[in-house]
Amino acid sequence: MTEQTQTLSLVLRTIRSGLAVTRPELSRHTGLGRTIIQQRVDHALRAGLLSEGEPAPSTGGRPSRILHIAAGRGAVLGVVFGATHLHLAVTDLDGTQLADRRLPWDVEAGPEASLAALFEAAAALLTGELADRLWGVCVGVPGPVDFARGTPVHPPIMEGWHGFPLRERLEAHFAVPAWVDNDANVMALGAWSRDRVAAGDNVLLVKAGTGIGLGLISRGRLHRGARGAAGDLGHTIVAAESRHRCRCGKFGCLEALAGGWALARDARAAALAGRSAFLQERLDHLTVTEVLDGCAHGDPVSIELVTRAGELVGSQLALLVSVFNPSTVYLAGTLAQAGDVFREPVVDQVTRGALPLATDELVITEADPDRAEGVGAAQLAIEELLHPDMLGEWLRHGSPRDAHARERASAEPLYLS
Predict the structure, then answer these.
(1) Nearest to 259 by CA among 201, 212, 296, 293
(2) What pLDDT was estimated at residue 60?
(3) What percent of the chain has pLDDT over 70?
(4) Helices (DSSP H) in 153-182: which residue ranges?
(5) How many angstroms from the chain centroid is the CA of residue 309?
(6) Which CATH class for the 3-69 domain?
(7) Burial of residue 325, with CB atoms counted within 10 A of its CB: 0-12 exposed, 13-18 middle, 19 or more buried
(8) pLDDT band at 413 (very low <50, low <70, confident <90, very high)
(9) Which of 241-245, 272-276, 395-399 has the highest mean pLDDT?
(10) Where is the signal peptide (predicted)?
């Protein structure tokens, strides 16, 4: 990796972030001299990675033109497997969404069936010139991931996925570089990328759906921990004396008391006990979706269940807010769709339990589900494509697709994870 590649990557990633979009701004923000900035911008313009737009507002002297990540050069595919659905999005390198598809899917159908569903859905999106422009793929899954190897590791709700060579299979099928990460991580990137300047560079995303996960962005970069296990909020113990066994095998996990599957379990018990006529009518197909419908219809038991889940999540989150001191917390996943019924108890518990200095300017808000999932995975792919270790290699060959083809032909790895 040369200094030229490092500075080119820095320029491209800074423009993508929106923190600096003119040559003078780039120089001030990065600390690089004007000559270096001019050289790197010219290089990126020649490579078709940047385009010049309208003049920036004049501050005296000759106005600078606003720089944009070029549209139409490459495209990336972002995919997120939820426990009960599959979301795909295709974006340009600037993050603009070009195609999108969401379909129901049970991730416990196993890796082979899940890949077949993914490939079929992707084929419907990647038609014509989009297929030729594909430069990278990223898939998020609801479980721990060894990011360096691109494999799930002992995921509690994904039977048959442990050690599955997911990245290898993706690269073989799409013939481009691929990455695999935890779904909460890519969702954090997706939510944060939309309003990075306002959100700040220290962000948490809590995904409260069938399971409960956490994506953590520290100083503008995803934090995965030493082995990729960072953010496994759902399997922290909140009630050691609980008799509810979690799907991970432990008792008293947050997920076993506040996850979507736990709410469906408790809703069924309430319906059988005659506590809710609304839930009784839906007993044959009672899931967390019916509990959320109950909240929307004012069913007291449904509201009680979601409120209690919010309190439990908020209590655990309060500790993280004191320890990590984020500027923004995003709420995502199925339970976040309950709106204030879930959000207000979360906010209340964080305010009560965290240090005042950590909460006096803290923003807790719902993430845009369409942006957070497939687009978030696409964002991760773009970040990796522009990483200095990778950027220099594929630029020499013209595109990531061309570089990947040479790698496969020579069987010699070109990229560092």
Answers:
(1) 212
(2) 61
(3) 97
(4) 166-174
(5) 22
(6) mainly alpha
(7) middle
(8) low
(9) 272-276
(10) none
CA distance from start to end of the chain: 14
Give all strands of the β-sheet with 328-332 in edge-to-edge order. 221-222, 212-218, 203-208, 328-332, 363-366
**What are the pLDDT digits (tens) for 195-235?**
888 889 999 999 998 889 999 999 989 999 888 778 888 88
- Of 187, 190, 196, the C-alpha closest to 327 is 196
Q: Which CATH architecture has domain 75-188+371-410?
A: 2-Layer Sandwich (3.30)
Q: 279, 302 in Cβ contact below 8 A?
A: yes
- Distance between CA atoms of residues 394 and 401, nearest Å: 8
Give the single-character DSSP code of 282: T
* Burial bucket for residue 178 (CB in 10 Å: 0-12, 13-18, 19+): buried
Q: Where in the chain is the domain with CATH 1.10.10.10?
A: 3-69
Q: What angle do CA 91, 220, 29 make, to 5 degrees?
A: 95
Q: Quote the CA–CA distance of 56 and 68 in Å, as a whole number.
A: 12
pLDDT at 143 over 50: yes
Helix, strand, coil tally for the chain in percent (to 5): 50, 20, 30
Cβ contacts of residue 134 below 8 Å, gap of 6+? 74, 75, 76, 77, 126, 174, 176, 401
| Rounded CA separation 274/297 (Å) | 18
- How confident is the model over 252-311, as pLDDT tens digits? 899 999 999 999 999 999 999 999 999 999 998 899 999 999 999 999 999 999 999 999
- Cα distances (angstroms) measured from residue 16 to each of 4, 58, 187, 193: 18, 22, 18, 9
Assigned CATH for 195-368: 3.30.420.40
CA–CA gap between residue 372 and residue 145 (Å, rounded): 19
Angle at 156 between CA 153 and CA 158, to 5 degrees: 75
Which segments of the chain belong to CATH 3.30.420.40? 75-188+371-410, 195-368
